[in-house]
Amino acid sequence: MEKIEDCFCFLLGKTFHKVSQKGKERLSNFGITPVQFTILHLLWEKEGQKSIDIAKRLHLDGSTITPILDRLVQNGLIERRHDPKDRRINLIYLTEKGKELETPLNNTMDEVNHSVIEGFDEEEIKVFKKMLTKLGLNQEN
Amino acid sequence: MEKIEDCFCFLLGKTFHKVSQKGKERLSNFGITPVQFTILHLLWEKEGQKSIDIAKRLHLDGSTITPILDRLVQNGLIERRHDPKDRRINLIYLTEKGKELETPLNNTMDEVNHSVIEGFDEEEIKVFKKMLTKLGLNQEN
DNA sequence: CACAAATTATTGGTGCACCAATAATTTGTG
DNA sequence: CACAAATTATTGGTGCACCAATAATTTGTG
Question: Which residues span the domain enclosing B29?
């Protein structure tokens, strides 16, 4: 590998980073971050999830989730409730404010997603997604 | 967007993350991280670079570079030298230890790169890289 | 030439991400 | 049933990444 720019891993990282910055920018108007959006998205789908299940679904370490949930609680978007049946578990629920953000945040992220893949046609996106998925699976172990 | 997994940004992030973990794992045997490798790589190409030029080349914020260079100095791989012509500037040089790592580290990362794209043929990689580059350029404002 | 503007590197603050260890609790096996 | 093993969430430590502000120095313009 002559130049670092020719390194596939480097290229992938830089592309991801640029895309991610775009999401950050738009979401910052709502005072949240991309990863916080993904958590809210799971909760709009189904409330009362365990933090460990959220972590697994998002492929994040359990210890990564804790401070992110803290910030969502602090911003009044979610709340932790003890599971009455198992005292180890915190179930995560949306607040009213968290529920209200569903439509505006989804609209915003739809826009971001569109602008990100602007200039690609349907078929290209499909191939691209397939490649990303295949590449990801390649790394499992 | 029904499920978060269908979000293109999310998929890209997760794929990058998995790939990046593979690099981390292998490089940890040398006590360095992927971003530290990229900096060393630039220095093997040309010593005595300004930190701001390293940052630009790697698309990193200047303030991100400082602590990474600190750690490389601490691990005895590089050293900062004052530019005699401009006292604002620190020029970054490799130590002997930093130079010695060129071959083993490059070999290691070549292996990682190969294992990452295993199962893809030449043509697919070319298309993939082109798409990543195009997508990246798409984000530049 | 003086002094505002630009450049360079750093500091301080925030927010992910990991791993290893811990505490509280529940599960499951002898 | 007792108690080791498993589960859940958290804490503490490390390492990127950003932005805004700062300090030191150099450049460039009136």
Answer: 17-108
Tens of pLDDT along chain A (141 residues) come to 688 988 899 999 999 999 999 999 999 999 999 999 999 999 999 999 999 999 999 999 999 999 999 999 999 999 999 999 999 999 999 999 999 999 999 999 999 999 998 888 888 888 899 999 989 887 775
**pTM here?**
0.92
Nearest residue to D25 via alpha carbon and C1': B88
Interface of A with B in 101-120 (CB under 8 A): 106, 109-110, 112-113, 115-120
**Cross-strand bridge partners of residue A81:** A91
Which residue type, as a one-letter code, is found at position A26? R
B3, part of any domain: no
Residue B60 lies in a domain: yes
Asked if residue A17 keeps its beta carbon closer than 7 A to nucleic acid strand C, the reply is no
Q: D15 C1' – B42 CA distance, angstroms?
A: 20
* Kind plus residue range of the DSSP H or E element containing B90: strand B90-94
